[in-house]
Amino acid sequence: MKFSPLVQELIDSLKCLPGVGAKSAQRMAFHLLERNRRGGSKLSQTLALAMENIGHCEQCRNFTEEALCEICQSPKRKIATQLCIVETPADVIAIEQTGEFQGRYFVLMGHLSPLDGIGPDDLGLDILEKQLATGQFTEVILATNPTVEGEATAHFIAELTQTHDVEISRIAHGVPVGGELEYVDGNTLAHALSGRKNYSF
Amino acid sequence: MKFSPLVQELIDSLKCLPGVGAKSAQRMAFHLLERNRRGGSKLSQTLALAMENIGHCEQCRNFTEEALCEICQSPKRKIATQLCIVETPADVIAIEQTGEFQGRYFVLMGHLSPLDGIGPDDLGLDILEKQLATGQFTEVILATNPTVEGEATAHFIAELTQTHDVEISRIAHGVPVGGELEYVDGNTLAHALSGRKNYSF
Ligand SMILES: [Zn+2]
Ligand SMILES: [Zn+2]
Fold first, then answer.
1. B55-56/B63-64 β-pairing
2. Quick check: ipTM above 0.90?
3. How far A194 CA lies from chain B's nearest CA (Å)?
4. Same domain, A44 and A109
5. Is residue A97 part of a domain?
6. What is the pLDDT of residues B69-127, one digit of tens each?
7. Which pLDDT tens digit goes with each residue over A7-60?
8. Is residue B199 part of a domain?
9. At A77, is the secondary structure helix, strand, or coil?
């Protein structure tokens, strides 16, 4: 005895979502069927549109349903001389929200991970090279995550970028603003110490 | 700065799933877009079919895409004299998997919960009464959960059932088979003691 074929199919389909196992999928299916059919139908339509129409920006690889994303389309950004390299679309949003950066982005959509079979080609580094070859950019900011994989990826891209005539920088590691020293991990604290600057009065 | 309109819409739509907040929805959207478009499209199609076609069995209220569910359609079950009342479709499956029950079910799709505005009508008790009025059943087994709400619901249905000429039983509470007494909660242990039976040699 199983659920009816279509109920079972719905449960199985929901398991394609990351972090959703058999029990969660069942709970989701019952919830939609019993309490939110409108939400389920809306999700169905949006999923169809999204899977069909969302691609990668031709310049920065960010997700977009147009050829160029909103940032790459912006006249101000078109003439930007700084290129900030990040791992994910969420990182773009995080940096945009600081309001401190007016340049362009390049979104790797991940990081180098030989064990998972993710190499330079999967990160679109050939597209990155073409961007650098235009000579538009005078600085490349490596803003990958401060993780082992992020550092390795930053290092790889730094070497690749060296063959072009641009400055290469890495975002600073250090104590988070507003954080208490007591609760900062040792590695971060070591970076904060070695990266210390002269006190500016 | 936000994600592109369609990416944002996908993230928002995914939030209709129970237990999925902004961060999880974002992770799900990126995962589908980047690694599993086929799964996303399949989910879209199945959702549309399911929201459109899955209804409740006319007899037992379980989810089914037909007028009667598989169990209610079975010739053996059609003449069953036992009716087992459970809270959810998952409970039907759990009982079926024991292989110990050959009767019919009635699925409440929840339990009485005045605070959430869930009353007798929401549990289909009018349909239950019609089933009992046929005179087919000689025993009603109350198999709602051993929770406060489940007990209250069982009690309510027992009173309603009393007006019909049927035996009423409640599933036994006690120590789980294979469990260690030491780890059983006091309430369950009290039930296990008060429900003790003569030892059968
Ligand atoms: Zn772009
Ligand atoms: Zn049925």
1. antiparallel
2. no
3. 34
4. no
5. yes
6. 999 999 999 999 999 999 999 999 988 888 889 999 999 999 999 998 999 989 999 99
7. 999 999 999 999 999 999 999 999 999 999 999 999 999 999 999 999 999 999
8. no
9. helix
Tell me if B16 and A44 make a contact (CB, 8 A cut-off): no
Q: Which of B41, B42, B44 would best serve as a mutation to test chain A binding (most A beta carbons within 10 A)? A: B44
Q: What is the pLDDT of residues A63-112, one digit of tens each?
A: 999 999 999 999 999 999 999 999 999 999 988 888 888 999 999 999 99
Closest Cα in chain B, distance from residue A3 (Å): 7
Show the domain range for B13. 5-52
> Exposed, middle or buried, A147 (CB in 10 Å: 0-12/13-18/19+)?
exposed
A178 domain-assigned: no
Q: Give the separation between CA B63 and CA B189, rounded to whole angstroms.
A: 35
> Based on the structure, what is the number of domains in chain B?
2
Contact (CB<8Å) A4/B37: no
Q: For tokens 């950066």, what's the residue?
A: A101
Q: Which ligand is nearest to the CA of B73?
A: 2
Question: What residues have a C-beta under 5 A from ligand 2, the ion?
Answer: B 57, 59-60, 62, 69, 72
Bridge-based pairing of strands A55-56 and A63-64 is antiparallel
CATH number (domain holding residue A94) = 3.40.1360.10
Q: Are residues B31 and B45 in the same domain?
A: yes
Ligand nearest to the CA of B70: 2
Question: Are A151 and A170 a contacting pair, CB within 8 Å?
Answer: no
Q: Please indicate, yes or no, if residue A186 is contained in any of the structural domains.
A: no
Q: Are residues A121 and A97 in the same domain?
A: yes
Same domain for B159 and B60: yes
Give pairs for A124-129: CB < 8 Å, separation 24+. Answer: A124/A56, A124/A61, A125/A157, A125/A160, A127/A59, A127/A61, A128/A85, A128/A157, A128/A160, A129/A160
